[in-house]
Amino acid sequence: MLMNKAKKFIIIILVLSLVVCLAVLAIEKRTKFVRHFYDNFILDNWNHYLPCEALLTEMEVRTILQQHTDMIQKIEQINPGLIGTEVDPSLCLGKADLLIWYASHQDRLEIEAIIKSKTFFGIPYRLQNR
Predict the structure, then answer these.
(1) How many domains does the chain have?
(2) Which of 19, 39, 92, 128 has a 20 to 30 Å separation from 4 between CA atoms?
């Protein structure tokens, strides 16, 4: 009798654990909360996680960047040689975003203060601490 109750209890715990895991996975798929947390607080990165449909074409990205070379130079001059910007077409065929890499958290804060938006003049961007 006691053994049956223990087995039932274990089965209930396993089923509840499975339900919780599935719920967490469903929430993560929509919000990317765990990925954002890991990127932001562990790696000191910021990623947009946008689908390909939400990205601009590579040509559009390059055109916008040519129109704002002064802002790109301002960002790169925060820490010359240790901050860079590049068009990244590797995520989606025919599409691109802006990758901004930097050397320290302070660099990142200064970059974000210059951009003041989640896009760079409409271009989704990613920040990578290298």
Answers:
(1) 1
(2) 19
